[in-house]
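Attaching the record inline, Q. Sequence:
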Amino acid sequence: MSNLILKDHIVADDWTLVQLPKVEQEVRMQAGKVVMFKLTGENTTSVEQIVNTVIPSTGKVIVPLSVYLARKSELTSRLANKELGIWLATHEVLEHLTAIEADLNVLPLIGVHVERFADGRIFSIGNLLRTRYGYKNTLRAFGDVLRDQLFFLKRSGFDSYLIRADRSAEEALQSLKDFTQPYQGAVDNTQPVWRRVNRSA
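Structure, as predicted:
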């Protein structure tokens, strides 16, 4: 069964996720501890990885941001046919994408990959895409995506969630109903609760 949730339904995934070739990563230490996340703006992709990334010749594909930036010319027809999306990691900078795409809505799907849930950058990225950059198409969270995060990802602008393979999408789907009246305004509803709820007797 599919582990992809779109809005409030479990659906089949008709997109192929293109991954960068694996490379050995050095373990970094900071204050005697292993650094568990990458720094914002850190370049973690090599030229060899970009060149050697295999992109299927047919069907809908989601390619890494670094590959799209370097190989955009060969992907033009896929983009025109609405069969090209991009994904970025939480440490990558959105401005690298907006510098070459004035209107992000040319992309039918943008994915954000969480390598491991160690910080909240995915929420900021979703918010920025929906508000500052006016992105209106499918915004997908994938990677270390768990049930407890879905409600807050939705509030940050995400409408598609690829649940981790070892977890249940059906159970995760229920988390979108965990709260009925969130207090703060957010991307999914900009009005705070005191503007949404009529307290008159």
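The beta strands are 4-6, 9-11, 15-17, 29-30, 33-34, 60-64, 84-89, 109-114, 138-143, 160-162. The two ends are 48 Å apart (CA to CA).

More tomorrow.
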